[in-house]
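User: Design a sequence. Structure:
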């Protein structure tokens, strides 16, 4: 697979490329988009073929997920993550964010606090705030070369003070790229058990690991916690299928699962997009070798950019990561506020990064760059950043 190939994404309805002015203002169309987390590569050829085949069939009546969908997901989880997934756990929803929103409605009441660890993915704030809940931030702590750590003492204080019913965890963590260790997750779950908190673990980035890193799901932990964990997964981030819209919420607890299924039914969400199902199945069945190539390319993109930044961008402090294709850069040494930082990135560097302030107060003074692009884009971004 040639990940160096430049493919024009204009006029495809791409949020990242075609709708950049909506977010960055008039004139932003000329900027290099390094924001939205999708990548600028085509999906695996096996997925394209599967889609062609399904399109050629020509009938798109109401569809369910066939057995092959579940078999592929279960085999993928076992092979990639040594994770046992039971078919009955799988509740499929159009996307991780819509599923999170439905779960927030189901598992909390208006006015309740819901915990996230900041800096946090902006859509977590949306599903909490726009559903009339309160976002309770448990800020992560930065520990030099070790990167970000959970602050479990502060978390317990928050649990005690606010008695939240729910926490949304992000693992691997967007934007920092941290994969939480088994020990950290065990300590977290012990606290959640003590304070009766349910954990929804957004694991959409689980397949996108750096070399020699492993991913621990909340479902790898002891079964005694299965009554309070829900894991969200998808083939979308891994294989570049975000607009096809299908994700899975893995819910081991039968009562939680039944309640969620009823909620999906109540919204008419019990019918599935035939193309999404076809694409995800093919990706899990046959996309492994393609993903290995992609991961090698992404790792090299990161290595190269970090090396260049160390040589040419003295103000940039890059966060160590274990996963994702996101680069979380501390720009505090530039001594700019977030408006000025955005202006400098656009008008001097010519790039449109995700601004750190969109990830809550802990993101102020940071930018997030998307490394999921051909190397030449990174070269162009670096040239721009050198002008700062
Ligand atoms: C942590 C996280 N969760 C969810 C999503 C989006 O999920 P979906 O498109 O399935 O709603 C993203 C996309 O960037 C993400 O980073």
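Assistant: Done.
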């Amino acid at each position: 697979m040639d990940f160096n190939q430049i493919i024009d994404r204009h006029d495809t309805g791409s949020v990242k490329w075609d709708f950049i002015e909506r977010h960055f203002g008039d004139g932003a169309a000329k900027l290099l988009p390094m924001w939205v987390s999708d990548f600028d590569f085509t999906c695996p050829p096996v997925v394209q073929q599967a889609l062609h085949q399904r399109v050629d069939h020509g009938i798109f009546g109401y569809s369910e997920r066939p057995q092959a969908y579940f078999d592929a997901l279960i085999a993928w989880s076992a092979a990639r993550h040594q994770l046992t997934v039971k078919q009955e756990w799988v509740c499929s929803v159009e996307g991780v964010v819509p599923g999170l929103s439905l779960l927030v409605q189901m598992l909390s009441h208006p006015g309740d606090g819901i915990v996230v660890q900041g800096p946090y993915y902006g859509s977590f704030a949306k599903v909490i705030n726009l559903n009339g809940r309160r976002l309770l931030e448990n800020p992560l702590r930065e520990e030099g070369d070790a990167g970000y750590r959970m602050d479990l003492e502060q978390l317990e204080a928050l649990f005690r003070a606010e008695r939240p019913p729910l926490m949304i965890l992000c693992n691997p963590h967007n934007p920092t790229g941290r994969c939480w260790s088994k020990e950290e997750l065990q300590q977290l779950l012990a606290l959640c058990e003590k304070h009766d908190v349910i954990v929804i673990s957004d694991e959409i980035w689980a397949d996108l690991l750096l070399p020699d890193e492993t991913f621990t799901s909340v479902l790898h932990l002891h079964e005694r916690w299965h009554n309070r964990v829900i894991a969200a997964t998808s083939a979308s981030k891994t294989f570049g299928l975000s607009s096809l819209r299908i994700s899975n919420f893995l819910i081991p607890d039968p009562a939680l699962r039944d309640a969620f299924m009823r909620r999906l039914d109540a919204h008419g969400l019990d019918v599935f997009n035939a193309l999404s199902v076809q694409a995800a199945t093919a990706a899990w069945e046959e996309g492994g070798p393609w993903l290995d190539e992609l991961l090698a390319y992404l790792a090299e993109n990161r290595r190269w950019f970090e090396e260049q930044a160390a040589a040419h961008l003295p103000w940039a402090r890059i966060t160590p990561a274990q996963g994702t294709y996101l680069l979380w850069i501390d720009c505090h040494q530039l001594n700019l506020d977030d408006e000025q930082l955005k202006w400098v990135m656009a008008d001097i560097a010519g790039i449109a990064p995700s601004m750190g302030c969109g990830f809550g107060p802990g993101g102020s003074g940071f930018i997030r760059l998307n490394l999921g692009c051909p190397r030449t884009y990174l070269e162009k971004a670096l040239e721009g950043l050198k002008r700062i």
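The longest strand covers residues 166-170. The chain is about 40% helix and 15% strand.
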